[in-house]
């Protein structure tokens, strides 16, 4: 399939920037959501295959009563979505999950209730903009980390993760995958589904502006691949703008004085980079990890893997029943339960780890030869360590 290149808008009469290209749809973000949408806009439409839903007889009845031969996208989605419940507040998303991955949340390995047909005449002219290769933030994460979700939960339409062969047990669909294998899966999906010409990677959107007649002007730059070459500006005008950017590169901050200093990092990838550059080692001062979520746990796991001493500050008490770790099955997430055990133990049984429960960072001050001193709310104490 060769995607249309788009049409140039008349800048002379419309007042648009020179070289502006018209697209029916502009998608900002080339992660899984942007990829799946491009797959459908490229003319791949889902159809109900007639199989009953494993647990929802009412949904099966609604699907069976729809006119035969119509794609799901041509049917009344609000009617089909009635009564559906799940982890999303979007009922259409719940409907798609029920059809594409029926009962996945219950641990069942059920086949999809959809089959896909390609209709070249249904192609919608679109472009997908992303800062890196297809896969979005998955391409920027530490590839050695295992995914939280099961691999099949992150499958895209029409391409089984098991048949992809990018990593993980090929016969175990309900298993976790490495971030690296999922990043490769998403990148290969774009190639195998022949979506490449819809994607413009290496781009950064700098401005989105509303125009008359429900139009949008999207402006940005495309980074030059060759050293010394100039970045190229681009402009798109569209009546349908989709934001599929996610929040990976917008981490939570402490919002205290000093939290934007260069020695405060918010990325596991940056932590790994510091280790490779010998800026952190087993002989370093302790790394102070702040928080009690899964990202903090990933940082602790990485620190211990490299033999780094760790101070771990979090606001809750060590026995708080609301920790996210309690919601994860221990047989599937043993590494996170180990971190929870360390937090509860306080560090008495684990070398180079010390937990600081019921602590809140109120200020980060450069001191001790450039190392930050973190002033904590509990006992008004100061904790020295790298962050």
TrEMBL record:
InterPro entries: FAD/NAD-bd_sf, OSGIN1/2. This is FAD/NAD(P)-binding domain-containing protein. It comes from Cloeon dipterum. Coiled coil: none annotated. SUPFAM superfamilies: FAD/NAD(P)-binding domain (SSF51905). PANTHER family: FAD_NAD(P)-BINDING DOMAIN-CONTAINING PROTEIN (PTHR15192:SF8), PROTEIN CBG05349 (PTHR15192). Signal peptide: none annotated. It holds the Pfam family Pyr_redox_3.
């Amino acid at each position: 399939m060769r995607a249309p290149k788009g049409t140039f808008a008349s800048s002379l009469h419309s007042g648009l920037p020179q070289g502006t290209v018209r697209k029916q749809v502009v998608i900002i973000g080339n992660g899984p959501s942007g990829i799946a949408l491009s797959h459908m806009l490229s003319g791949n439409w889902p159809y109900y295959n007639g199989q009953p839903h494993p647990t929802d007889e009412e949904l099966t009845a609604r699907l069976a009563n729809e006119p035969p031969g119509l794609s799901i996208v041509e049917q009344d989605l609000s009617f089909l979505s009635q009564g559906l419940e799940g982890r999303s507040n979007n009922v259409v998303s719940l409907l798609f999950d029920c059809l594409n991955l029926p009962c996945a949340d219950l641990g069942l390995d059920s086949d999809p209730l959809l089959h896909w047909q390609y209709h070249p005449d249904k192609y919608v002219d679109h472009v997908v903009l992303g800062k890196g290769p297809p896969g979005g933030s998955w391409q920027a994460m530490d590839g050695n980390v295992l995914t939280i979700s099961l691999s099949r939960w992150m499958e895209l339409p029409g391409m089984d993760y098991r048949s992809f062969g990018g990593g993980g047990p090929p016969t175990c669909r309900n298993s976790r995958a490495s971030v690296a294998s999922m990043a490769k899966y998403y990148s290969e999906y774009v190639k195998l589904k022949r979506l490449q010409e819809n994607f413009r990677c290496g781009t950064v959107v700098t401005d989105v502006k509303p125009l008359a007649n429900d139009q949008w002007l999207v402006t940005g730059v495309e980074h030059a691949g060759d050293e010394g070459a100039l970045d190229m500006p681009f402009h798109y005008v569209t009546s349908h703008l989709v934001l599929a950017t996610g929040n990976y590169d917008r981490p939570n901050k402490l919002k205290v004085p000093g939290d934007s200093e260069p020695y405060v990092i918010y990325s596991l990838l940056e932590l790994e980079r510091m280790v490779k550059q010998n800026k952190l080692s087993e002989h370093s001062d302790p790394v102070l990890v702040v928080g009690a979520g899964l990202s903090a746990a990933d940082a602790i796991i990485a620190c211990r893997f490299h033999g780094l001493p760790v101070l771990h500050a979090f606001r809750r008490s060590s026995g708080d029943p609301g920790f996210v770790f309690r919601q994860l099955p221990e047989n599937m997430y043993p590494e996170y339960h180990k971190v929870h055990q360390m937090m509860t133990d306080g560090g008495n049984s684990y070398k180079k780890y010390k937990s600081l429960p019921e602590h809140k960072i109120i200020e980060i001050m450069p001191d001790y030869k450039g190392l930050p001193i973190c002033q904590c709310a509990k006992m008004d104490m100061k904790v020295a360590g790298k962050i």
